[in-house]
Specification:
The structure is a homodimer.
Chain A: H1 8-18, H2 21-25, H3 36-54, H4 58-64, E1 67-69, E2 72-74, H5 79-88, H6 107-129, H7 131-141, H8 144-156, E3 160-164, E4 180-183, E5 194-205, E6 215-223, E7 233-239, E8 250-255, E9 266-278, H9 285-290, H10 293-321, H11 348-380, H12 384-417, H13 431-439, H14 448-460, H15 466-483, H16 489-512, H17 519-522, H18 524-546, H19 557-571, H20 574-583
Helix pairs in contact in A: 1-3, 1-11, 3-6, 4-6, 6-10, 6-11, 7-8, 10-11, 10-12, 10-13, 11-12, 11-18, 11-19, 12-13, 12-14, 12-15, 12-18, 14-18, 15-16, 15-18, 16-18, 16-20, 18-19, 18-20
Chain lengths: ~600, ~600
C-alpha cells in the first residue's frame, strides 16, 4: 500500500552537506541564530505532520473528493481537521516576515515543508498552497487599512486566500480577462479604492471550502476605461465575508470533475458586483501578481519533487517485497528465495527504473533547494551584488524548475507505476493516484510550454545572454572541483561537455533569433530540457563530491554515488537530442 | 468535447496505397474475391458502429463504471445494447474460419476494426477483446465434443470468453500459478478430460458481465502431480453455465477500482471445484495459450494506435478552435482573428505537439497494418517460404508493436492533454480519460518490459540474428526506392543510417551476451525502442513515397508528407540515445 515518510536525513544532507546552507544563512542577518539544528528541528516536525496527519487522508480524499451544493463545498473527511492542526502548528507563517506576525525563516525551509506536504497529500496542499502568495501580495501592495484588516489573518492561516485569474476565454492569455471593476462611493482609481467586481472566473482552487471562516480572493479585473490586454489589468481584494459580517456577492456555481487532486475544490466563481478594494496601483495588477511569481512557480516545482519522492520511495519498497521470476544476477551475498522467485528489484529493467527514479529525485531536490536558497539570498542578503547575482540565477532557474520538476514528477511516477504491473493500475496501491495528481502541475501557474517561452525570451535572450553567462560561470566551478579529484573525473568531464553544449546553443539562439524570430520559439522546449539536463548533471556532480560521509539515518555514500553515477551514464545522454534539435535551426515546422 | 470519427480514407490509404494490401490478398486463395471495395465497405460499416454506437457511451461509461454485487456485475448504461448490436452485425466472426461459422476475412481488416473499437471505447472493447483468442484456442485445441458445444457460440459472440491466467503471486511469472485441476469421473489426463477447478484468479476482464447469457472461462491450472513452473500448466475450459443449465461453481468476489477503462469489469474470480474440461494436452496449457499470443499482443498494440488516433484528431480540432495570444507567424494567407488572439495551432510549441502526434499515428498505423498483413500471409499464404518469412517478421515485430504502440499511445495522449491547458485536466473534455484508459495497455498481455526481454532473448539472439537479418533486408528495399527519387533522399539517408545502427547494435548484443549474460537484459528496453524508431523511419519513408496522390476524403499529399518529414527531422534523433546506450556495454547498473 502507498505510504509516505519524509526522507528527513536525506533532505538535511542536501541542505547542509551538498548545498552548505547553514554557512550561507550565517551571512544573512535576518537569519541570525538559525543553524543546522534549528533546520533539523523544523524539518522533523514538518515530516511528522506530513507523514502522520496528511498522508493517511490522501487516498480516501481522492476517492471521496469534494462535494458542491449552492451553499458551499465540503472537502474530504479529515481535511478540515488537518488544516486546523496546520494552523495551530504555526506552519503558514513559517517564511512570513516577523513584522507581519511571521517566523521569518528561510524560503528554503518553507520549500522543504511544501515538498513534504505535496508528497503526502497534494490535493490538501492546494488549500494553503496559495496562502504565501496572498500574504506576499497584501504585504507588498496592500494599503495600511487593508493590511490592518487582512494581513495577520492570512499570515496565521486563519483565513485562506485564492488567486482569481483564469476566465473561460483567458487561460494562458490573461490579456483577455474581462472581469469588471467599477469604482464605488465616488472613489478615484488608486490603491485601496473601493470597487464592485462583476464577472466569472474558472479553475479557482479553494474558491469555496469548509476549512476557514473567511476567504480572501485576489481578483484580476479591469477598471472601466482601462486599456485592453495585460496593461489594463488591476488586482482587487474581495473577501467572502465583509468586515461587517455580511456575505459578499461572490458565489461558487460548481466544481470541476478532474483527473486528479480530487480533494481540492476547483471552483467556478461568480462575482455579482461583489465588494472589494483595489490592491496595488490601477492597471498594474499583473505586475503585482508577478511579484510573487518566482516563489509560486518554485512551489509548483516542489510539487513535482514531492511526487518524485513519493513515487521513488514506494517503488523501492514494493520492488524489494514483490517476488517474480529468477533474476539473471543477484546482489553479492544475497540468498536465493526458497519460493523460486527473486525480488523484482534485482531484475535489470526494474533496477534501471529504480535508479532512474532515485537519480532524478536527488538531482531535483538539490536544484529545488538551491533555487530556494538563492531566493533567500536575493531577498535578504546584505550585499547588493550578491542579491543581484542571486536574483539573476533565480530568474533563469525558475521557469526551468517549474517545467522540469513537474515534468519529471509526472513522468517518473508514470514510469514507476510499471513496477507494480497490474496492481499499479488499481487505486488501492496508490501510485496511479500519484500519476493523476502530478499531472496538473505541468499545466497550472503557466503551462510548461509557457515556461519554455519565458525562459528563452525573457531569461536567455532579453539581456544578450548575460544572465546565462553568470550562471554558467557558477556551474563551471563544479567542473574544476570534480576534475581535481581522480574518482570524480567522469562527473567533471560530463559537466564540462554539457556546459559547452549550453554555450553553443545559447550562441545559436542569439545568432539566429533576429533573422528568424520564430526560431527560439520552435526550440524553446528543447532549450529548457537541455538546460535542465545541464543542471541535473551539476547536481549529480555535486552530490558525488559532497556525499562521502552523508548524514546518519539516510542513504549510504555508496547509494548516493550509485544514483548520481546512473544519472550521468544512463540519463544524461538524453541531453544530446535536445541540443541537436536546437542546433538544427532550419528544421521545418510547417502549418498543416 | 471529445469525439471520435474513424479516419476511414486515411486508414484505407494506408492499407491500399502504402501497403498494397489488395495485391497481396490476391495471392492468397482464402481471400478469393476480396478487393479494395470490399475492404472499404467493411471499414466504413465498422467506422459507423464505432462512431455512432460506441463513442457516445464512452465518457459516461467512465463516470458510471461497473457495479458489483454477489449476484453479478452491471456494466455501464448502453454497454449491453451496444454489444447486442455488435453481435447482430456479425463483427465477432469477421476473421474466424468459415468452417467455424466465421467470415474468413483477413486479420488486417480485423485489426482495423479493433483500432476503431478501442479508439471509440476502450473499456467496452475489453469484452469482445478476448473473443477471438478464445475462438482460436477452442478451434485449434478443443476436442470435437467441446467444439460442438462452444465453438459456434463463441464465434458468433453469443457467448463471451475470458482468459484466467493471473493469480496474486503469479503475474509476469506464470510458473507460480497454483489453481488446481482435479480429474473427475475416473478420467485419465488427456485433452477433453473432465476436471474440477479450484483456486483464485485476479485481473480477469469480463469475469462477470451482463452482456451474454454464458461466459466461457479459459483457466490456466495445474493437474495434481504436474511439474512446478510453466511446464506443469494445463488449460481448462470452464463455462459459467453448464450444458445442463446449472450455474457452475465459479464466482466473482469483487471488481477492482482502477485508473481507467472503468466500464470494463476487472474481476476477482473464485473457482470452487468448478466443472470443466481440459483443452489441449495436459501440461501444455501455456503453449496452447501462446499460440494466440502474436494476435493478442498485436491487438493490444492496436489499442495504442486507437488512443493515438483519438488523441490526435481531438487535439487538432481543439487547437484549431481555441484562440489564445498572437502567434509569431501565421499560415500563408490566413487572416488575423479580430478577437486579438490566434488559434493555438499556430503557436510553435503546439505545432510541434500536433505534428508529432500525427507523425506517430501515421507510422504506427502503417506498422500495425503491416504486421497484421504479415500475420495473414504467415497463416494463409500458399507458398511455404513466404509463410515462413512472414512468420519470422511477425515474431520479431510483435513484441515491438505491443510495447512501442502502447507506449506511444499513452505518452502521446499525455502530451496531447497539454494542448487543452487546464481544460485537459477536466473530465468533460475527454483527453484525460484517454490518458487513463491508455495506461493499462502498457501492462497487460505481458508488460512492456517483458516484451523487451522477449524481443532480445527469443527474437534477436535465439537464432543467431537470422530473423533480424531477414527483416533488415526487407526494410533495406525502402532505402533503395527512396534514394532513387530526388525528393525522397532525406528519407533514404535517414533509414539507411538507422539500419546501420540496428546492425551494429545487433552485433554488439551477439558479441557481448556470452561473456556478460545480463548485458542484453540491461539494454533490452533500448533495443526495443531503437528498433521501434527504425520501423517508424521505414514507415515515414514509405508514407512519403506512397502518398503522392492519397485517397480522396482523407488528408492531402502535403499533409502526409509534412508529418512524415517531421518524423524524421524531429522525432528520429531520439533513436541515437537508445543506440548509444546499447553500445555502452559496460555502463554500471548496480544493486543498491
Amino acid at each position: 500500500m502507498w505510504t509516505y515518510q519524509a526522507p528527513v536525513a536525506d533532505m538535511l544532507h542536501v541542505m547542509t552537506r551538498v548545498l552548505g546552507a547553514p554557512d550561507r544563512w550565517s551571512e544573512i542577518p535576518a537569519f541570525d541564530g538559525l543553524d543546522a539544528d534549528t533546520a533539523r528541528e523544523v524539518v522533523q516536525q514538518a515530516a511528522r505532520f506530513a507523514g502522520e496527519v496528511l498522508a493517511p487522508i490522501n487516498a480516501n480524499g481522492d476517492l471521496v473528493g469534494c462535494t458542491w451544493t449552492a451553499n458551499g463545498v465540503t472537502t474530504p473527511p479529515g481535511f478540515p481537521e488537518a488544516y486546523r492542526a496546520f494552523v495551530d502548528g504555526g506552519w503558514p507563517a513559517l517564511a512570513c516576515a516577523p513584522d507581519a506576525g511571521g517566523q521569518g525563516l528561510p524560503q528554503l525551509l518553507n520549500a522543504a515543508l511544501f515538498e513534504m506536504l505535496a508528497a503526502a497529500n497534494h490535493a490538501w496542499t492546494m488549500y494553503p498552497g496559495l496562502l504565501h502568495g496572498a500574504y506576499e501580495v497584501i504585504h507588498a501592495h496592500g494599503t495600511d487599512a487593508l493590511k490592518e484588516r487582512y494581513l495577520a489573518k492570512v499570515t496565521s492561516g486563519d483565513w485562506l486566500g485564492t488567486m482569481c485569474m483564469t476566465e473561460p476565454q483567458a487561460g494562458s492569455d490573461l490579456g483577455q480577462v474581462r472581469t469588471r471593476a467599477d469604482l464605488v462611493d465616488g472613489a478615484v482609481a488608486a490603491n485601496g479604492a473601493p470597487v464592485a467586481i462583476t464577472g466569472g472566473k474558472i479553475f479557482i482552487s479553494g474558491g469555496e471550502q469548509d476549512l476557514t471562516d473567511n476567504i480572501v480572493h485576489l481578483v484580476l479585473c479591469r477598471l472601466a476605461g482601462a486599456p485592453g490586454g495585460t496593461k489594463g489589468l488591476s488586482l482587487a481584494l474581495v473577501p467572502r465575508i465583509l468586515p461587517d459580517g455580511r456575505r459578499n456577492a461572490v458565489f461558487c456555481d460548481g466544481i470541476e470533475k478532474k483527473m486528479g487532486i480530487k480533494g481540492s475544490a476547483t471552483c467556478q466563481m461568480r462575482f455579482d458586483g461583489a465588494e472589494g478594494w483595489l490592491i496595488g496601483e490601477p492597471d498594474r495588477g499583473l505586475a503585482a501578481m508577478f511579484l510573487m511569481m518566482n516563489a509560486a512557480r518554485l512551489h509548483v516545482g516542489l510539487q513535482g519533487l514531492g511526487h518524485l519522492e513519493a513515487a521513488t520511495q514506494n517503488a523501492w519498497r514494493y520492488a524489494g517485497e514483490r517476488l517474480q521470476m529468477r533474476a539473471a544476477a543477484k546482489p553479492q551475498g544475497a540468498a536465493a528465495d526458497p519460493a523460486g522467485a527473486d525480488p523484482i528489484a534485482w531484475h535489470p529493467a526494474m533496477r534501471r527504473t529504480l535508479l532512474g527514479l532515485q537519480a532524478r529525485t536527488d538531482a531535483v531536490r538539490v536544484l529545488a533547494y538551491w533555487t530556494a536558497l538563492l531566493l533567500d539570498e536575493h531577498e535578504q542578503h546584505p550585499d547588493p551584488t550578491r542579491r543581484a547575482t542571486a536574483g539573476g540565477h533565480v530568474a533563469l532557474l525558475t521557469p526551468v524548475a517549474k517545467a522540469l520538476f513537474t515534468d519529471l514528477g509526472h513522468r517518473s511516477a508514470d514510469e514507476a507505476l510499471q513496477i507494480w504491473g497490474g496492481y499499479g493500475y488499481v487505486h488501492e496501491y496508490g501510485i496511479e493516484q500519484t500519476v493523476r495528481d502530478s499531472r496538473i502541475a505541468m499545466i497550472y501557474e503557466g503551462t510548461n510550454e509557457i515556461q519554455a517561452v519565458d525562459l528563452v525570451q525573457r531569461k536567455l535572450l532579453d539581456d544578450g545572454g548575460a544572465r546565462a553567462q553568470a550562471l554558467l560561470a557558477e556551474l563551471e566551478c563544479e567542473v574544476l572541483l570534480c576534475l581535481a579529484q581522480g574518482s570524480l573525473q567522469p562527473f567533471g568531464v560530463a559537466l564540462s561537455g554539457q556546459l559547452s553544449a549550453w554555450r553553443q546553443a545559447q550562441q545559436a539562439l542569439l545568432d539566429g533569433c533576429s533573422a528568424d524570430p520564430e526560431y527560439p520559439l520552435r526550440v524553446a522546449d528543447d532549450m529548457l530540457q537541455g538546460i535542465g539536463h545541464v543542471l541535473m548533471c551539476w547536481a549529480w556532480a555535486r552530490i558525488a563530491r559532497c556525499s562521502v560521509a552523508p548524514l546518519a539515518g539516510g542513504r549510504t555514500a555508496a547509494q548516493w554515488q550509485a544514483a548520481a553515477r546512473y544519472g550521468i551514464e544512463w540519463l544524461l545522454p538524453q541531453a544530446q537530442v535536445h541540443w541537436a534539435r536546437v542546433a538544427r535551426r532550419t528544421a521545418a515546422l510547417p502549418f498543416v
